[in-house]
Amino acid sequence: MKEEYLHYIFRTKQLGKYFTTTNNQKIEVLDFGIHNHNAGPDFLECKVRFDGKIWAGPIEFHVKSSDWIKHKHQFDSSYKNVIAHFVFEHDLEIMSGNYTLPAIEIKSLINQNHFKKYDNYLNSKNWVSCQNEIKSCDDLIIYEQKEIAIRNRLTRKSQLVIDSIQKYNGDRKKAFVNLLFKAFGTKVNKSAFEILGEKFDWKIVSKLNHDSIKIQAYLFGLAGFLTGTNNDIFFILLKKEFSYLKTLFNLSEMNSEEWKFSAMRPFNLPTVRLAQLSQLLIDGLSVSDYISLSELRPLLMSEMTGYWKKNYMFGRIGKKENPGLTNSFVDLILINVFIPYYFAIGRLEDNDILKEKSYNWLKSLNPENNSIIDKWKSLSINANSAFDSQALIEQKNEFCKMNLCLQCKVGSNLLNN
Hints:
Blueprint: H1 3-11, E1 18-20, E2 26-31, E3 34-35, E4 43-50, E5 53-64, H2 67-70, E6 84-89, E7 95-96, E8 99-100, E9 103-105, H3 112-122, H4 139-167, H5 172-185, H6 190-199, H7 202-207, H8 212-222, H9 233-249, H10 270-282, H11 293-300, E10 311-313, E11 316-317, H12 327-348, H13 352-364, H14 371-378, H15 386-400, H16 409-416
Parallel strand pairs: 5-6, 6-9
Antiparallel strand pairs: 1-2, 2-4, 3-4, 4-5, 7-8, 10-11
């Protein structure tokens, strides 16, 4: 038995509202209160009628009464006002000060068929616990759960941005840059791009006046790609320029061994990604609360020019020209950089317009294609937009993997039916 199951059947009123304590006294729950997901008692602001009086305060749940002692609640002042103790199995009288806490044993009140179905979900070996029943779930219920999942995802990802802004003493541009660099790294070089993002200083770039050579020298030099020797003329040019910038701004470069090149397609190589990122900075990419998606996409799809049009590493010419960022990679940047950034600023400023922008952009972007989305499709759950695909990724990773069936509208609906 898990406490979360006891919480669920209580807050959904499946146990009713009339109970008998272990001392054979009648108790009525008048107000089921607020389910507390933070530290402290499980339900706050409850009301019960007991012993001829109306009591107001928290209600606590445990599998066994003795868990109160095991969890050391007797030493925690936040539990001193608990008005009732609901337990699956009563094995110990609990004192709160000089007061014997009313205990209600609910083992005999639980619907065994309901619990068995829940227990089967918890122990299921399926990709998602409810996959054999999910087709019978109403489309509206599935959509409502998608909305919960996407709100959960945007809140979680935007909190990382907020934490970053706070870390850099309110510097929003720095937080945005770190997010942007991380996205360019994808899975393979994410950590290396994150290190580069930490070293990167937007103020220095602003002093370089969109100069192509200087910006490329700054980025490739910081990344550690301009060390050693190379007969390539462009490498020599950038190395000379970085040497000057390094002295001028007191820069320190990364260790080039941080970067991974093996088993990668040419256009995914870190040097190519860094060249694409340089192009965005050369073209003056910035972040604005007022920019529309139709204005932003052309900025992100800047055409590659100069040396990196044909080269994918210093001194190595590719078989195909580098066209710049593809539509799918631009979508990735929008989904993982701009949308969580705008949602974060919306939260910071209590700006519903920015938060709504994030939702609307997700609904207008194409869905991602990956193994998670393919698996949902096999269960007849389709993704028609990035809103859907992001929601389904969140659903799988943050709900289904965690067996949070009781917190999921789909799981709860199937369990109760």
